[in-house]
Amino acid sequence: MLAVVESCSTKGVEGFLVQVEVDVSPGLPGFYICGLPDTAVKESKDRVRAAIKNSGFDFPMQRITVNLAPADIKKVGSQFDLPIAIGILAATEQISMENLKNKFFVGELSLKGELRKAHGILPMAQSISNLYQNSVFVVPPENSFEASLADNVTVIAPETLNDLVSFLNNKKDISPVKTDIESLFSKNAMVYPDFSEVKGQETAKRALEIAAAGGHHVLMVGSPGSGKTMLAKRLPGIFPPMHAEEAFEITKIYSVAGLIDPETPLITQRPFRAPHHTASSSSIIGGGQIPRPGEISLATYGILFMDELPEFRRDVIEALRQPLEEKKITISRASATITFPANFTLVAAMNPCPCGFFLDEDNDCMCTPFQIQRYMNKVSGPIMDRIDIHIEVPKLKYKDIKNDKTGETSEKIRKRVTAARNIQRKRYKDLDIKCNGELEGKMVYQFCKTTSEANKLLEKIFDKLKISMRAHNKILKVARTIADLENKSNIDVEHIAEAVQLRFLDRANY
Ligand SMILES: Nc1ncnc2c1ncn2[C@@H]1O[C@H](COP(=O)(O)OP(=O)(O)OP(=O)(O)O)[C@@H](O)[C@H]1O
Ligand SMILES: [Mg+2]
């Protein structure tokens, strides 16, 4: 007999429906799976056989053929165990086929018949809710809260195959799982370290406020122990709160990567990802035989912190070009070409030279000019072109350390940043961008209007400092953000002057 069970899978961060067709017919006993299964799906056979037997049901000694449709898309992971088991039980009339209507099944099975968690549940639940009204989505208990984030889907999360079969045969009731999304936003309150703990470093703090307000990428250059890492870790705390649509989009990426906490399924805090410089290109960019999201995708709507930037592998730095420009990354493998979002703010830190003390007042630097140049060249070019703000983080003065005055709290700075971001959201509401950092090409001139005095200053700087056209545009973008922080519609002299101060490497005499 033939049974058809509805299931789901993911491609990139989107879900798609899969029909699991199970045919059980007389013949030599055998179990075959077709429809481009990967190794984990092929291994399903052994788990499903054991789970069915150990749950007290009959496993047919006949020829079983399973087809996963559409047959031309690669099927990945162990989550087809459950629909295959249900298909076999339905095809052998141990479950009524009538009761499978409008139900979708996803989950791995243990040999005892317990349901184990799967990856990518939120995108799957959303694809079901987009296509069908009032469907039932059967998932493992660990995925239940995540699945219930989608509208219009009733989520059932049985512990075991046995419970599920009793439910499907109307012998047992399982109550649907519900999540209060509002409460998730209030529960996961911000827990970032606070800016008030940073002594001195007023210029650096101001630069980070501007970076957060306009979504600009930042590079901090300074000697060891000057506080670069400390400052970067406090940056997510001054970013504006996440909007619901951003929270869902980032949760989808974490869901596909299998990084969702079952208790707090919705990611409501901006991610802060700080990969180590020895990390491989596939862990940072994304990849693997079956492409998975990398650090740049996991940092979407948050911060990617690359500490000790020149120490990262050259191929990793080069590979950042596309995501920095297009806010997404496309990974091509023999099995599939997949696009993941990668819309992050890059914060990088580095020393000014291999020993780290080149910029110190009591310059103890022993590096040769050639060594310094080689060190800086590791990051110049592809990535420097895309960074709007570069600042020096100098060593603290003793009077700053002894100063007991506490600085501004992150909360206070965050209010100003949020106000500036709201102005930008309004300004760019008809465009595909959200903040000044994303302005490109002729949009820069359209939206960065200067007063005549500001124009004169910019002209002087352009001629005197011999800056490039690209640097000129970056100064305009950053000045736009500084003007937004003051709620001014036009860019004035002081905004341009401050923006130029935030282009340290254009001025530094390397
Ligand atoms: N401005 C500051 N206010 C308070 N503490 C500071 C400040 N700067 C540095 N520190 C202290 O010094 C420690 C080292 O700072 P941090 O790790 O941020 O330096 P770094 O610039 O990243 O150095 P490296 O180049 O070696 O990575 C911090 O953990 C912090 O305790
Ligand atoms: Mg550091």
Quote the average pLDDT. 89
End-to-end C-alpha gap:
77 Å
- The helix tally amounts to 22
| Fraction of residues in H or I helices | 25-40%
**Number of domain units:** 2
What structural category arises from helix and sheet content? alpha/beta
CATH class of the largest domain: Alpha Beta
State which percent range the strand residues make up.
15-25%
Number of strands: 18
Q: What is the CATH topology descriptor of the largest domain?
A: Rossmann fold
List keywords for this structure.
single chain; 510 residues; Ribosomal Protein S5, domain 2; Rossmann fold; 4-stranded mixed beta sheet; 22 helices; 18 strands; binds adenosine-5'-triphosphate; binds magnesium ion
Explain what the structure shows.
With about 500 residues, the chain is an alpha/beta fold. The protein has helices at about 40, 45-55, 80-90, 120-130, 145, 160-170, 180-185, 200-215, 230-235, 245-255, 280-285, 295-300, 315-320, 320-325, 370-375, 400, 410-425, 440-445, 450-465, 470-485, 495-500, 505, and strands at about 1-10, 15-25, 30-35, 65-70, 105, 110, 115, 135-140, 155, 220, 270-275, 285, 290-295, 305, 330, 335-340, 345-350, 390. The protein folds into two domains: about 1-180, Ribosomal Protein S5, domain 2 (2-Layer Sandwich); about 195-395, Rossmann fold. The protein contains 22 helices and 18 strands. The strands form six sheets. It has a five-stranded parallel β-sheet with strand order 11-14-17-10-18. The termini are far apart. The mean pLDDT is about 90. Adenosine-5'-triphosphate binds near residues 201, 222, 227, 230 and 396.
